[in-house]
Amino acid sequence: VKGGISFISLNHYIDFLSYHPCFFMGKIEIRSRKLKFPFGDAQHLYLIYPYEDEISAEIQWRIVRAGPENQNVLLGDIRVVDTKYNDRSIDFDFLGDHVSRELFSGSKNETIQKVLLMREEMMRINEERFDYNIPFLEGIIGG
Known about the structure:
Helices cover 27% and strands 34% of the residues. The chain is of the alpha+beta class. It starts with 9 loop residues before the first helix and ends with a helix.
């Protein structure tokens, strides 16, 4: 995934975190972005968490999101990625109107543990190769 880390091994990710113990800060948020379709509106949910860049020491954001593989809602599988959250992200909140709630708040170490659990589940979902299904399309194509 371009700009993401969705295909590295969990052990490699744990090693990475152990060398960068102050990399993550202490909260995880869930956000909602409104999607407009001809057949009705929907909400796209995603998670974000801050981390401290080891080189610049700037606080930046990462996003855990799911969507259709290769942006193909008809034929693609669902893919979950963990990547940078910035103005090049498909879900970036340019207008500041995405609904946001704090999902978790704790120490850096507690947050690291939560992020590791999210990564583990993300990898399991990606390995299962679930079909990306939109209920409206399922009714039309009989999915």
